[in-house]
Design goal:
The structure is a single chain. The chain contains 6 helices and 5 strands; from the N terminus they run H-E-H-E-H-H-E-H-E-H-E. A 5-stranded mixed sheet has the order 2-1-3-4-5, with helices on both faces. The chain has a single domain, classed as Toll/interleukin-1 receptor homology (TIR) domain (Rossmann fold, 3-Layer(aba) Sandwich), CATH 3.40.50.10140. Helices cover 49% and strands 18% of the residues. By secondary structure, the protein is an alpha/beta fold. The longest helix has 24 residues.
Length: 146
């Protein structure tokens, strides 16, 4: 049987967790904004979102969150402002796409966490994930983080 002080601490910790989640949601709509090239990383991005969602992370992925036929610019701008973390699926093609570059440049100004995952055509064929290709950083250009 828990003593009154231990029960109080436990209840206080639960309350702190609830308040933190609510405050976080008030500031950020999404935990993760996933940026990628549709041609070579769409399936990977969708799978990543599913996996993160199963771990209780909220994710923005343009294909699922943007209304069909609407302009992406206002939707993306709002999602970038409301995202805590930016994940760049940095394939060779993604680093040349205007939307990916624009998303990266807008998010870098926020000084929030950016995660780059470099995925080569070789990795795609093997189906493997090389965790050494993950980079966490702030303040660098796409593909140049060290």
């Amino acid at each position: 049987m828990l003593r009154p002080v231990a029960r109080f601490r436990s209840a206080l910790n639960r309350l702190r967790e609830i308040l933190f989640k609510r405050l976080f949601r008030a500031r950020f709509r999404y935990d993760v904004f996933i940026s990628y090239s549709h041609r070579d990383a769409k399936d990977y991005a969708i799978n990543l979102k599913k996996q993160l969602s199963s771990l209780d992370f909220t994710c923005f992925i343009d294909e699922e969150e943007s209304p069909a036929g609407s302009s992406l610019d206002p939707t993306l701008a709002k999602a970038l402002r409301k995202s805590a973390t930016f994940v760049l699926l940095a394939t060779e093609r993604a680093l040349t796409r205007p939307y990916v570059t624009s998303e990266f440049e807008k998010f870098i100004a926020t000084k929030r966490t950016i995660v780059q995952y470099f995925r080569s055509a070789h990795q795609k064929q093997r189906g493997g994930i090389d965790t050494t290709s993950l980079e966490y950083h702030q303040g660098a250009k796409p593909g140049l983080a060290k």
